[in-house]
Task: inverse folding
């Protein structure tokens, strides 16, 4: 059985993420970091919440410590630190710093989950690393508090991706909604602090409203579902290599919108995307982990229940 659906979900997610840095940078002109981060995930939860409630199981997930950790790392830490870092760091640098993700995720997966890296995955990771290095150029060497915050957030997202691999039996919509809910819970104290010191801003003009709608509906609700579904069903190291495409897509989007191009960055983008493609091909040959459905028959009744690996 091939992983075409999870692989496709990961691919779409990273393409959408690659377009968000400029959008977030624009939105921060009208909203403070905490307001923007909370607002985008509040919008996402408005979409995911009712769908998850209809499918069932989301309330039980809210009481799960691993799910709370997913919200802390994949929502609060990653997006919160990213938006805070964008106050003093350019969108280009923020996109380039995502280059840490594939290597960090692969290393954590090997050490924590004891995943074995196939030859195809190693080749894809190596090619993607060369590519993002060329895309980065001298931008990633920027030493600033904002860049440091974004880098810490990237490491948190690597942990989040590895944690998702341990949740293959969860409904992806319910898990995405529960993760979003916990993320908002962890973000609210930051918003309260921003309001207390008078730094909260929320000037919602037409441009800011459009940016918020895109970040909330597309770049949060949709990508949170896609990444939850895909990363929970393929090796964490495979999901991690996909993130190498984020800086490349971000650069290509910048060129399309008028930023001057360079040969090094163009070649690097092609190599990063090619590396992600090789990793996708290698990862698609691994069977996805799905819960096994067992039917137990007793006099007068039939019970169906799922068993996740390790249960």
Result:
């Amino acid at each position: 059985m091939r992983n075409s659906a999870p692989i496709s979900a990961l691919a779409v997610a990273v393409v959408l993420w690659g377009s968000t840095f400029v959008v977030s940078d624009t939105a921060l002109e009208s909203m403070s970091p905490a307001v923007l981060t909370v607002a985008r995930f509040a919008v996402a939860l408005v979409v995911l919440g009712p769908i998850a409630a209809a499918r069932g199981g989301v309330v039980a997930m809210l009481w799960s410590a691993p799910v709370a950790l997913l919200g802390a790392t994949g929502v609060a830490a990653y997006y919160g630190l990213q938006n805070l870092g964008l106050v003093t760091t350019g969108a280009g640098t923020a996109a380039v710093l995502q280059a840490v993700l594939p290597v960090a995720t692969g290393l954590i997966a090997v050490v924590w989950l004891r995943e074995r890296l196939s030859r195809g995955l190693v080749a894809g990771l190596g090619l993607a690393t060369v590519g993002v290095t060329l895309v980065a150029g001298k931008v990633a060497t920027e030493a600033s508090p904002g860049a440091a915050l974004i880098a810490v957030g990237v490491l948190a997202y690597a942990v989040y991706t590895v944690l998702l691999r341990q949740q293959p039996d969860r409904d992806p919509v319910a898990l995405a909604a529960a993760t979003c809910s916990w993320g908002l819970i962890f973000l609210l104290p930051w918003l309260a602090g921003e309001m207390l010191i008078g730094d909260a801003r929320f000037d919602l003009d037409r441009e800011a409203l459009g940016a918020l709608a895109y970040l909330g509906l597309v770049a949060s609700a949709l990508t949170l579902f896609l990444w939850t579904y895909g990363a929970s069903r393929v090796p964490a190291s495979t999901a991690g290599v996909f993130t190498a495409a984020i800086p490349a897509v971000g650069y290509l989007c910048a060129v399309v919108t008028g930023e001057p191009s360079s040969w090094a960055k163009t070649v690097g983008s092609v190599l990063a995307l090619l590396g992600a493609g090789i990793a996708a091909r290698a990862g698609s040959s691994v069977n996805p982990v799905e819960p096994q459905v067992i039917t137990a028959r007793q006099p007068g009744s039939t019970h169906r229940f799922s068993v996740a690996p390790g249960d």
Q: What stands out?
A: Residues 4-307 form one domain. The CA atoms of residues 74 and 160 lie 5 Å apart. The first helix runs from residue 4 to 18.
